[in-house]
Amino acid sequence: MKGEENMNNTESAKARAQEAVKITWLGFYINMVLSLGKILTGVFGRSAAMLADGIHSLSDFLTDLIVIVFIKISSKDKDEDHHYGHGKFETLATLLVSVMLMIVGIGILYKGIKDIIESINGTILEAPSYWAIIAAVASIA
Questions:
Q1: Are the beta carbons of 50 and 128 closer than 8 angstroms?
Q2: Half-sphere exposure of 136 (CA within 13 A, CB side)
Q3: Over the stretch 11-28, which tens digit does the pLDDT of each residue have?
Q4: Which of 18, 80, 116, 129 fits as disulfide partner to 45, beta carbons 3.0 to 4.6 Å?
């Protein structure tokens, strides 16, 4: 009875892991397209906000890769070296994703502060083009 229950739990965990990988791959491709579109629009549309958003989407794209790799690792069964399974690798993935997002956030903060200081010192920042507004609306949609 107990062995059968463990088998059902293992199968259920593997099914959840497969579903998570499938959904993460979908997010990966969406983030890839969003990243490229936002970064190009930010550069050519002269929009620091859109460029920052594009870099954030790029970080989401990269963290999707981390999630996919670590879901596969953490869903492995127990073995000689990992008597309790590989579930703790999820914690490592969370740490990596958090550090990556923190680095992106610090970069965006730095760029924003730099632009504010330049503006205070008399530098006129370029106004974003209408393409940036269109891309922002499309991104929200």
A1: yes
A2: 16
A3: 676 777 788 788 888 888
A4: 129
